[in-house]
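Standup notes, structure subgroup. Blocker cleared on the tryptophan input:
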Amino acid sequence: MKKILTGVKPTGDQMHLGNLLGAVLPFKRIAEQNDGAIFIADLHALTSVKNATDLQKNTHEMILTYFSIFGIDTPVHIFRQSDIPLIPKLNWILNTVTPYSLMLRAHSFKDAENKILAEIQESELGKNDNIRAKTADRSEAYWDSTMSEETQGLNAKIEVIPQLNMGVFNYPILMAADILAYDTDIVPVGADQKQHLEMTRDIAKAFNKTYKADIFKLPVEHIEPNVAILPGIDGRKMSKSYNNFIGIFDDAKTLKKKVMSIVTDSKWVDDIKTPDTCNVFALIKTFATADRTESIRTKYLAPGYGYGHAKLELLEILTEYLKPYHDARAMLEQNPELIEVKLQEWARIMNARIEAKMVEVKKVVGL
Ligand code: ADP
Ligand code: TRP
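Run returned:
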């Protein structure tokens, strides 16, 4: 049995059908067959969520989402990162063995920096030639004490500095602490996290080498191969960034509105249609039973069946598919204490693991 662990940042995004099929259900399968854990990375979210109510709300929503999908009695350890008090301590110790040069290579920081620089260039502040020249290559210009008060005022106004904080820079080291703390073997993640796993291994090796001791296990990432891309309501990849998604917990009215607005070609009811290029059919095929899919395919190939009919069938199929998740959520909303008990129980187990690891760590470093 392998130790499987992943983390999700509570950024307030709703989980959609693409996430469910492409990431969450594949994770659930491996996690249930192994020693699996998933945590809500609320400490990581502090790098971008700067409002207590929002953070609480997002974290609660994530927890409710995962328990509704996994079931309250899941063997998968669902916990909150901030319920593990030794994580920030391990994070600091790992900071002290992590080469600065390693951190400078992090794509996640460069991406955040480029995004902010682009925002600045487009803003009022970016119209100032002096600033434009300075920001052309580095965001350090923002700290320039020679800036006029007027410029510094503008600077504060667009609030760019808090976005590019040291937490964003140190993010991969905190992630390494999350993973190394529990002797994790496998970390299921999206492809965008591959470099973070490489950095985690580099940090583990740096620690082991510095203290000439085999303390940290080297984890490997698991990136789900051949994930079928689920289309969104406009036919592009379903994604929160395109706002074309169907949320797992969309209410009946929203679901209906979204399904009815799925983009199709303009064939009439009596035209023969091509199911394999139709967005409605792509979703039907994914969520309906094989028999029902085949019967709908036959209807596409005959007159008298329009996209309106297909959409109503899809609505029924999705409603049925999502019902167990909606029912579980409604039950948990009625009984929030069930979740709190589980979170405490899983946190106790994960705390015991990191405590044991920290005994070894403290011994070799001399604390
Ligand atoms: P989004 O595109 O909505 O921002 P993310 O990039 O946060 O989604 O996706 C997280 C994970 O969900 C990805 O690693 C991927 O495995 C899965 N995923 C997201 N969208 C889809 C999709 N349309 N089809 C299949 N899997 C998806
Ligand atoms: N960085 C991950 C993301 O943005 C979230 C995360 C934090 C994580 N700590 C982790 C994922 C540890 C896996 C393991 O998606």
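Discussed briefly. The chain has 15 helices and five strands.
Next: hand off to the docking folks.
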